[in-house]
Design goal:
seven-stranded mixed sheet, Carbamate kinase, about 40% helix, elongated, single chain, 16 helices, Aminopeptidase
Length: about 450
């Protein structure tokens, strides 16, 4: 067998736990109009079909924002926006309904494909649409009458759940219906969020134009706390451009769902083929997860973690960045280590060795390549500093050949070999020529 075949086998075996985890769970999936228009959308349909075949209960919520704008322009009409919400005039509603209805039909058609040899062959998916969303007018805000732009009044969760129990995929749109028989144009993000909340969904999945949430350097942030999400939401809200606006709206929806006990929201690229499957069925993922679960844990290391620590530090030892430590030595020193664990995998580690004269050595800070630039080193260092203070230590020192600037940023100051504890001076390796940094606690 080829190497790619072995890789597929390994991935398929490792995905088993995720398949079992997701079976019979409710996923609400936001598919904005930009996602529907992207050339990768048929692949997303294939992946959603796979989820359905694995027993996931799907509620799809599609939007039509760019399509409505284009359709209105073709008939000589334009829309005003206030606070990222379209003002929908009565004269525009017929165009809105036609556009949304046509898109919904196109989505149904994609889920109905089943040619032999195609990814959809034998899927036999039934799509259910209905008046599951009750709406009311947004009304007048700051003197602006939003007319036929609506807000959610009620999601008929019981009716949706009945369809899911019959193994149907439920398809919602950005249209809602009032008790007076009127149709309102809704924010698709609000429909997806309120549906996830009403159904107590296990996941809210939001497709966005980027790989996920990224920091100022463009690095992907795989996981967010509530505080992180609020920080990045402010950052995206201050940015300009249509893609930033889509991401900001999706992140705002994820944050609202989080605050209403939807435990996991994923922000995933609608441009990248297979991003959904990689995010849901691999440990590394391929997007950004906002979760209320304790999905990553910083804790004291145990002997059972030695193998995981070895896997982390071995590449750094081979590169000469860290001093080599045997498995036997790690077992005897394991009480000095702290680790960050994610879904059973040790993804970061660090150690604190108490020394004479109320000092301690920080050593062996390492992160898994797939989880670098996520702040785990900072969290581990902060934890070690707290432990050192509680133990009565007054200063920390570190020897490094490659991370001088990182430690300077964390409050360490460059020092001399003579400032090290005597026992460490005797062990100093002049061949490595490590730089010495000290931090007073």
């Amino acid at each position: 067998m080829t190497e790619s075949t072995f890789s597929f086998i390994d991935w398929f075996r490792s995905s088993t736990s995720y398949i079992n985890l997701h079976r019979d769970k409710i996923f609400v999936v936001l598919l904005g109009g930009d996602a529907l228009a992207n050339e990768n959308f048929p692949n997303i349909v294939h992946d959603l079909s796979l989820l359905h075949s694995l027993g996931v209960k799907l509620v799809l919520v599609h939007g039509a924002r760019p399509q409505i704008t284009d359709a209105l322009e073709k008939v000589g009409k334009t829309s005003e926006y206030h606070n990222n919400l379209r003002v929908t005039e009565a004269s525009c509603m017929e165009v809105v309904k036609q556009t949304v209805g046509s898109l919904g039909t196109d989505v149904e058609a994609l889920f109905s494909m089943g040619l032999a040899g195609s990814p959809m062959h034998g899927s036999d998916i039934r799509i259910c649409r209905g008046n599951f969303v009750t709406a009311m007018p947004v009304g007048v805000h700051n003197g602006i009458d939003f007319q036929y732009t609506g807000a959610i009044r009620k999601i008929d969760a019981n009716a949706i759940e009945q369809q899911l129990e019959q193994n149907n995929v439920v398809l919602l749109s950005n249209l809602g219906f009032s008790f007076t028989g009127e149709v309102f144009n809704l924010s698709v993000e609000e429909v997806a969020t309120e549906t996830a909340i009403a159904l107590k969904a296990d996941k809210l999945i939001l497709f966005i134009p980027d790989d996920g949430i990224t920091n100022s350097d463009g690095d992907l942030i795989p996981s967010l706390t509530e505080q992180d999400a609020e920080y990045f939401l402010n950052s995206y809200s201050e940015s300009s451009g249509p893609e930033k606006l889509i991401i900001s709206s999706a992140l705002s929806a994820a944050l609202k769902a989080y605050q209403k006990n939807v435990h996991r929201s994923h922000l995933i690229s609608f441009k990248q083929n297979g991003a959904l499957l990689q995010e849901l069925f691999t440990r590394e993922g391929n997007g950004t997860l906002l979760s209320s679960d304790n999905f990553e844990k910083l804790r004291q290391a145990s002997v059972n973690d030695v193998a995981g620590i070895v896997n982390l530090i071995k590449p750094l030892e081979q590169a000469g960045t860290l001093v080599e430590r045997s498995r036997e030595l790690l077992e005897t020193e394991i009480e000095n280590f702290k680790v960050v664990e994610f879904e059973g995998l040790i993804i970061a580690c660090a150690a604190l060795y108490p020394m004479e004269n109320k000092s301690g050595e920080v050593a062996c800070i390492a992160s898994h390549p797939a989880y670098q630039n996520n702040g785990y080193g900072v969290r581990l260092l902060a934890s070690l500093e707290s432990e050192a203070r509680n133990a009565g230590l007054e200063k920390l020192f570190v020897l490094t050949t490659t991370a001088a600037h990182w430690f300077l940023e964390k409050g360490f100051k460059e020092s001399k070999i003579a400032d090290l504890p005597e026992q460490k001076q005797l062990l100093y390796n002049f061949q490595r020529n490590s730089k010495v940094f000290v931090k007073i606690l």
